[in-house]
Amino acid sequence: TFNLTMTRVKCSKLRGKKPDELQKQLEELRQELNTLRVGKVTGSGGAQKLGKIRNVRKSIARVLIVTHQTTKENLRALYHGKKYKPKDLRKRKTRAIRRLMTPKENSVQLKKLQRRQWAFPQRTFAVKA
Amino acid sequence: MGPKKETKEASASAKKKDAPAATTTATASAKKTTKTAGNTTTATKVVTKERKEKVKSTALKAKQRVVRGNQLTRKRKIHTKPTFRRPFTLRLQRQPKYPRRSVPKRNRLDHFAIIKYPLTTESAMKKIEDNNTLVFIVNIRANKPLIKQAVKKMYDVDAEKVNTLIRPDGEKKAYVRLKADHDALDVANRIGII
Asked: InterPro entries under this entry (chain A) (predicted)?
């Protein structure tokens, strides 16, 4: 039988679109899903319509993914290099690692130690052949 | 002698409050120098420096006192009651240096999510014809005002009232009675229930 499921919404196509275009597409898809659900209850359409539901749901997911990804990307670019970033834009790693001292903080030495190291460095000797 | 000293003081002391003081000292020292015309330059230099320090310190003290408030003669509050209630202090608004979440949470319970689908059972049909109501299966987290809003947004109809119940299978059913100027049958046709 002829498969009437809609043309696949592709992420690569979506990424080029503007945010308000994406919003509009999202609205349309959700309306479509709504009508499909009504159709399911009233018993119209048949297998094709019912199969379409899955496609529409996944298309909606794709639009949302692209919207969210582009927003996040833009925000990361906005906050790049700033001292205070929102917490979800900071690196995640693990809780313990985030609380460790930075390498710079670790390398801090007492002045006394610095002077000693400068005055008495580790010497290497060699026996003259 | 006079003008030379003035310029020296002007160059040395950059503080604003010293400006009037400096000029007075300049004039004072000018008077002094006119008296002792034949005096050595070193003696007059020392005098002006001392005087400058004194003037500066008194001015500074005055400023500090104004800022601190005189602690010796402070006004004391009279308490007429034995209880002491915490006084109202300044409460500043938050000025966060960064938003905690970069993107605000999106509303998961929007009108698409609230109304799942309409019911088309026999009793639901009866409701449409007789009572001018539409029956929907609705998100269980939706309440009556939200359902009213959602119906308005989705189907462009005003609801007179909404009655809800939770079915035994865990879904929420909403009976949405439409206002008298809407016809439930027309709306049902429009939606596709029939």
From this structure: Ribosomal_uL29 (IPR001854), Ribosomal_uL29_CS (IPR018254), Ribosomal_uL29_euk (IPR045059), Ribosomal_uL29_sf (IPR036049)
